[in-house]
Design brief:
- By secondary structure, the protein is an alpha+beta fold.
- The protein has two domains: 102 residues, Ubiquitin-like (UB roll) (Roll), CATH 3.10.20; 101 residues, MazG-like (Helix Hairpins, Orthogonal Bundle).
- The chain has seven helices and seven strands.
- The strands form two sheets. Strands 1-6-7-2-3 form a five-stranded mixed beta sheet, covered by helices on one side.
- The longest helix has 21 residues.
- The chain is elongated.
- The chain starts with a helix and ends with a helix.
Length: 226
């Protein structure tokens, strides 16, 4: 892609090679950086970055800004420990604003709220985003193998045992659906979702690929509808 094409592509990923294609001139050497939770989608905060702050962010994989009051670079969490672990950095179509996707290690705001715009209100979308959080927790349990972890123990038993558990939990959901109260159906469904995530992890399949498949099916059906 040419630099002209990149400059008009919204959502383009920013790498170290792109540092000199960003437009810092409009803001006297600074560009705004909107930090969004990679888990809930909530806007956590807005800061400013100069070129060196962007470089440090990409290299450290933690959010680094330029403090206008201190006149220096500062890493979010350098005193509180509430770092912002950066997953991705993207630019807008004019390449003069950044979107930083991050996982916060604690409150994003210095006053203790989850975001600098107040504590986020959980929507159904936010709650569904917890599946991505749970996916990460499962991955850490498998990698760290903490003592007493059911997840790591199940994973160690292999795909056949995991698949058996998914089958058992699926049957329990079906039985609960025809003869148990809603609370029981919810509990059994939670067990099924958890074990399905472990199964997907055992196959190296991200949950996002399953969601993409659902989206694709919906798109195809919508396009085929009269």
């Amino acid at each position: 892609m040419s630099s002209a094409e990149a400059s008009s592509t919204p959502g383009a990923r920013v790498t170290l090679a792109d540092l000199y294609t960003l437009d810092f001139a409009k803001g006297d050497g600074l560009i705004p950086a909107v930090v969004q939770s990679a888990e809930s989608g909530a806007v956590l905060m807005v800061g400013y970055m100069n070129r060196e702050a962007v470089r440090a962010t990409l290299e450290r994989r933690r959010a680094v800004f330029f403090s206008r009051s201190k006149n220096r670079l500062w890493e979010k969490g350098e005193t509180s420990g509430h770092f912002l672990d950066v997953l991705d950095v993207r630019t807008d179509c004019d390449r003069d604003t950044l979107l930083v996707l991050a996982r916060p290690r604690g409150p994003a705001c210095h006053v203790g709220s989850k975001t600098c715009f107040g504590d986020e209100k959980l929507t159904d979308g936010d709650r569904l985003a917890f599946l991505a959080v749970l996916e990460d927790i499962i991955e850490r349990r498998i990698a760290d193998r903490p003592e007493g972890s059911y997840t790591s123990r199940l994973f160690a038993q292999g795909p056949r045992r995991i698949a058996q558990k998914v089958g058992e939990e699926g049957l329990e959901v079906a039985l609960a659906a025809v003869g148990e109260p809603d609370d029981k159906v919810i509990a059994e469904s939670a067990d099924l979702l958890f074990h399905l995530l472990v199964l997907l992890k055992s196959r190296g399949i991200p949950l996002a690929r399953v969601v993409t498949e659902l989206e694709s099916r919906h798109t195809e059906k919508t396009a085929a509808a009269p």
